[in-house]
Amino acid sequence: MLKGIDPVLSPDLLHALASMGHGDTLVIADSNFPAVAIAKRLCRLPGIPGARVLEAILTVFPLDTFVERPAAVMQVVGDPSAVPPPVRDYQAVIDHAEGRTVVLESVERHAFYERARSAFLVVASGETRPYGNLILTKGVVLPK
User: I need a labelling partner for 128 at 20 to 30 A (CA). Which of 19, 89, 142, 144 fits?
Assistant: First the structure.
């Protein structure tokens, strides 16, 4: 255990997050996502809901402020304007962590998979609800 570090952040996940650079992306994947087939690097957090994984990650992970939309979600097939429950949860977690409203980009399913293939990291969560997939772009940590 480390003082001040969210216990959801495993040693492997912390190492991967710290290894990422500005502009690198990570995917938080639900339990139906083809994480093993898509990931270059994979960290598993089985049984932990996606929003809880996101909450933990955002305690150490800066979102990119140089891009218009540093977070992207997968569109619902056949209803691209739908906002599924996991996405509503992700929106609330991001907005709280950032202290502002962050507009989420909505990406067609196959385009989302293509973007996920180039991600630095895929975090396979225990999220069982469909469409609990999210791509985050890492920003910079500025000196105080």
Answer: 19
